[in-house]
Design brief:
The structure holds two protein chains of two kinds. By secondary structure, chain A is mainly β. Chain A is built from no helices and eleven strands. The mean pLDDT of chain A is 92. Classes of the chains: A mainly beta, B mainly beta. Chains A and B meet through strand 4, strand 5, strand 9 and strand 10 of A and strand 5, strand 9 and strand 10 of B.
Chain lengths: 115, 114
């Protein structure tokens, strides 16, 4: 059983560009959350998708947007990249739509460097 | 609002010694509490979680944590450190009222000396 997978593993962009990161949830999971982990810091919640809709959002600007597909996979899009967007982007999936006791399973992350 | 404070960005112990990583939280509603471990260039792995019930929670790799509501703490312990325990540890809190928005602490890096 494959766990949470993310692509690409590494990415280099320049300021002002746009980037799309992808996540495939663990089999049987229908909820996907995205986190940003800056160097030396803990992950920060960006947003959560369930039933192809954004259900919760953290304190991130509108430059950060997402999408969930019918097969539960998800994309994170960041427009007008800033140097401060350089970070490890983590995707986490969960087995139940809003089951608060459920565990999130994290992928290995995509490391984004903005030059 | 919820927040997590991890005391000590770095902790160093000798192999075989007690591991104690401290975590204090604030939450306006009863929290769910988690400890995650992150090895270099990897994602997060759940060590243990507290949702309801018994306040002493046992996790993987011999770790355990105790939820102390009066102290708003959820410290992580392991009786005997192993070299393979060297990693970054994150304490996290989540509301028990819906959704998966999880607030993480800044992390504690554990060093294990031979």
């Amino acid at each position: 059983d494959a766990g949470v997978t993310q692509s690409p593993t590494h990415l280099i962009k320049t300021r002002g560009q746009q980037v799309t990161l992808r996540c495939s949830p663990k089999s049987g999971h229908d909820t996907v959350s995205w986190y940003q982990q800056a160097l030396g810091q803990g992950p920060q919640f960006i947003f959560q998708y369930y039933e192809e809709e954004e259900r919760q959002r953290g304190n991130f600007p509108d430059r950060f947007s997402g999408h969930q597909f019918p097969n539960y996979s998800s994309e994170l899009n960041v427009n007008a990249l800033l140097l401060g967007d350089s970070a490890l982007y983590l995707c986490a999936s969960s087995p139940v739509g809003t089951g608060v006791e459920e565990t999130q399973y994290f992928g290995p992350g995509t490391r984004l460097l903005v030059l | 609002a919820q927040s997590v404070t991890q005391l000590g960005s770095h902790v160093s112990v000798s192999e075989g010694a007690l591991v104690l990583l401290r975590c204090n939280y604030s939450s306006s509603v009863p929290p769910y509490l988690f400890w995650y471990v992150q090895y270099p260039n990897q994602g997060l792995q759940l060590l243990l979680k507290y949702t309801t019930g018994a306040t002493l929670v046992k996790g993987i790799n011999g770790f355990e944590a105790e939820f102390k509501k009066s102290e708003t703490s959820f410290h992580l312990t392991k009786p005997s450190a192993h070299m393979s325990d060297a990693a970054e540890y994150f304490c996290a809190v989540r509301r028990n009222t819906g959704g998966f928005k999880t607030i993480f602490g800044a992390g504690t890096r554990l060093f294990v000396k031979a």
